[in-house]
Fold this protein.
Amino acid sequence: MANFVALLIAGLATGALYALAAVGFTLLWQTSQTINFAQGEFVMLPAFFMLAAMHAGLPFWAAILVGLALSMAILGFAFKRLLVDPMLQHGVLPLAIATMALSTFLKESVKTFYSAEASPFPSIAPDSDIRLLGVAVSWQSIAVLGVGIATVVALQFLLNRTRTGRQMQAAAQNPTVARILGVPVERMILYTFLINGALVALTSLLISPIYLAKFSNGDTLGLAAFIAAIVGGFNQIRGAIVGGLLLGVVDNLSAAYVSTQYRGAIPLCLLIVIILFKPNGLLGRAEERTV
Amino acid sequence: MAAVLEAFRVSKRFGGITAVDGVSFEVREGEILGIIGPNGCGKSTLFNCLLGQLQPSAGEVRLDGRVTTGMRPCDLNRLGVSRTFQLLQIFPKLSVRENLILAAQEHKGTMLSRLFGPRDAGLSAAADQMIAFFKLGPLADELAGGLSYGQQKLLDAAMAFMAGPRLVLLDEPAGGVNLTMLASLKDRLKAFHLERGATFVVIEHNMDFVMSLCTRVLVLAEGRVLAEGLPAEVRANPAVIEAYLGH
Amino acid sequence: MMARLNYAGLAIAIAFLILAPLEFHRYGLYILSQWAVMTIAAIGLNLTLGYAGQVSLAQGAFVGVGAYCAAILTTHGWPLVGAAALALALCFVIGWLLGYPALRVQHHYLAFVTLAFSTLAFLVFRNESWLTGGTEGIDGVPRPNLLGLSTTPHLRYYYFCLFVLALVTVAMLGLVRSPWGRAFIALRENPLRALSLGVDTRRYILMAFAIGSALGGLAGVLYAPLVGLVEPPAFTLTLSLNLLMMVIVGGSGYFLGPFLGALVAVLLPEWLRGLENYYLIFYALLVMGLLIYSPTGLIGIADRFLTARRARAASAARAALGASIERP
């Protein structure tokens, strides 16, 4: 039983990371109809920024800041200006495909210019366990859960309690009306890209100690983010969080109790189940019938 | 007279806005029903709810007594319902004839038979007939995108008629059309109505068009039915005059 | 959508494809055969993406399914044709099973479902060693005997691939020129209007995806004897993305797009010899650039150029005519 709880907590921790990635992904979709297929690579990359900074001699905490800044600048600002803006005129589909090409670009670039091998990555938490109510819980998991919860709370606060946040929501729900009401929609959209840049950097920081920093991390993380977003309900932030946590728990438990060989198939099964029985996701609203 | 289409307390809400509020009416076989009302009274939204483009928030739609609420537009089309659009929706990269063939091909055989069958799905003759009926003869092979606005309107109507529908819903057919073309359009609509005995529902702003074409008129205001009856009656109805003048 | 065909150019290309390989060495034949096989897969993906407007990230996995069908069956003595029939049917059915729930909901879900399936397929290839040989794969896939002739010689196998490509091309031509082609144009240009005319957009998209996937499987059946070895790493998401980029670069929705795209994809690593590691990076940049400036790919650029030139010529002719009329 204690084992089950330990697995549960570890699952929640991984799930929190999936959730962060999924939230960023959902934000981009909500505000600018951007389906970012490179989200997995976005989570993979900041770790390498940080590693490079540390190689250049910076202490860990400084490298984190550098990674965060670079992530927001490149994966947030530059991504929007250089790829998304020119492409939005062509429609949702070409942009989605462009992000697929981007994912290949980022993945191969890291593989070629940095390393094809997995690099160890320092953790922000000590590598030990504590006993909580008779269950061994790693400091790692606690740190991840802690940062994850803090981030989500901060994000919710930003979106719901600040003027900027409410403007962002308005811009997402109805850009035309928002513009009429004087909301600087373009800037709001830029903010969501910057937020995603920060979210992926944070996720990268937390996940790389576990997975090791490797160019191919984007594959699993991307898939997890997309499925978490869909399972939760494609157009809902809260849904992305629920989806991520659920996915993490299911993933961890099935790896322990079911064959580990097919661990990667769990997201697919979950996805199919949700699409078949609850197509708008666990928390999603039914989108207006399109075709 | 049998009712072809019936709407029971159809409502549509978008967030806090109620665009259509408990609208009930019926469309009788063989009539030309006009739906009029001031701008923003919910006519187009109602249309979209009847035709499956939108899912009503409440209420029921019936075709020949069979519940069709929220049925997909393509399924409704196969049951004999077709429509035109307020914003022209022809296919500019196809020729006039190709547009017409497209408009009826899905009614011919099965999907598989269409894959292995003739290129025109056996509809060239019917398309040419329709082209002649709408007097678009010299334009048959022109790309639809190259036609004038009025000609495109005629094509739009022709496409709606191609599959021999029982019920045709026309969304602002007279919008933006010059007088000569308007007369032509009205003439063709009346001829089609006479020949095929189809039932029409027409949303229009152009009062003269409605009054001269429709056999019965329904007035909407603020998402609700305001009045209903013969054109002359409705025209003289003080509430109707008020609603229009008020805007 | 067919770009204005220059029939002479087409004839020259076909003549080249048939005659030039007689002079090629083994490696040249291998490249050309690869091109033919990838074009088949790209044609399938073009149907899904270019004609029906759906992204499939599983085309590489379907190629894998076809390849394993061929490898497993032929190493047990079955004829390749049998493997082809199985692969076509299997991929078609899987396509339906994946597409039906995905498209019923939201149209952009198919991309994610195919992404997940791609992962699943790889796991099956890798784990079920009793069937697929696991990480080692299946080696020594034989080339078929056709009408008593062995296709083991590289030239003969190339002609075999070319023949199948020709069949696929003719079949695709038939599809595009049938009423289905009209329905695809309609649902791509104006799905709302298409629906109101009775076009069951969902059904057409589903069929396009299923057929496209089946063609991926067929390509795989040809791939296995070409390479001889069938192993899991060849059929990952990377292949799916490669095929996607092929369709985009060639020109999504254009009939000849896949041919051109596959050519670029197969030749690029050759041109970038010595920069092997960089070719994917370069390719990805090319795709992004194309998408920004010409989402209709290389053929789209050519099409626009030719249309503009024709328009300029027409207006120049009109101007000349007008001037000559005005001058007494």
User: Anything to note?
Assistant: Chain C has 14 helices and two strands.
